[in-house]
Amino acid sequence: MKSISGENNGQVLELVAELICIDCGEPRDRGRRICKKCKAKKTRERYNEVGRHNFGKGFCKICNKEIILWRRDQLFCNECKNKSTSGQDNVSNTYERGHGEGYSFLHRRIAEEILGRSLDKNECVHHIDEDTNNNVLENLIVIERSFHVKLHIYLRRAYAELSEIDRENWKELKISITNIWIESTDCTIIRLNSYSQVAEWSTHST
């Protein structure tokens, strides 16, 4: 069908009211001026003309090299990103689950038992050594979700900046690096082993 996008405003308004695409005259969805096929065609034409959408330019947080920001929150260049993840264990979906009322991750159940309350959705339980099976109290802290993300970014950056020799000792180093970050941040962090000792002392003193 012949395109009618160049017709006068009266005809365009009439087509809009009838749910007809103003480009090809085919039916369209309510809330759109053009149909999905024409929208896809315009998107392809724009991509061929200007390329993939990006968020401008920035600098890698590790090597300070100028980079194109393909994501709004992009921090690293590809090379530094690969360095920050290579050699580290992928801990996704390896958390041990605990049973009881409901079905949840064991480290969260442990934290809730120690605190005597349910965890808020904004609270995360972090493994200091990043070993998801090491659920001893000394290895667990409760931290706000946004700061938990910042901690992992900090650890990734620290790993990428290490020499090859130091990376061999990463399992030991990341514990001290994490403790340094905890001491320097203004986030409220609960160390479960300390909380447990306080609770035990209060019980014996009453």
Counting DSSP E segments of at least 2 residues, the number of strands comes to 7
Number of alpha- plus pi-helical segments: 8
Number of domains: 2
Largest sheet: 3 strands, antiparallel
Principal-axes shape call: flat
How far is the N terminus from the C terminus?
A: 86 Å
- Secondary-structure element series: HHEEHEEHEEHHHEH
Low-confidence stretches: 1-7, 89-93, 99-103, 198-206
Which band does the percent of strand residues land in?
5-15%
The main sheet orders its strands as 5-6-7
Mean pLDDT: 78
Give the radius of gyration: 27 Å
| Structure class | alpha+beta
How helical, in percent, are the residues?
40-55%
List keywords for this structure.
alpha+beta, 206 residues, 2 domains, disordered N terminus, 45% helix
Mind explaining what this structure looks like?
- It is built from eight helices and seven strands; from the N terminus they run H-H-E-E-H-E-E-H-E-E-H-H-H-E-H.
- The longest helix is centred in the C-terminal third of the chain and has 17 residues, at 145-161.
- Strand 3 and strand 4 (102-105) form a beta hairpin.
- The strands form three sheets. It has a three-stranded antiparallel beta sheet. A two-stranded antiparallel sheet has the order 1-2. The protein has a two-stranded antiparallel ribbon with strand order 3-4.
- The protein folds into two domains: 9-50, no CATH class; 97-205, no CATH class.
- It is of the alpha+beta class.
Topology:
Elements: H1 9-17, H2 36-50, E1 57-59, E2 66-68, H3 78-85, E3 97-100, E4 102-105, H4 106-115, E5 123-127, E6 140-144, H5 145-161, H6 164-167, H7 170-184, E7 190-191, H8 192-205
Antiparallel strand pairs: 1-2, 3-4, 5-6, 6-7
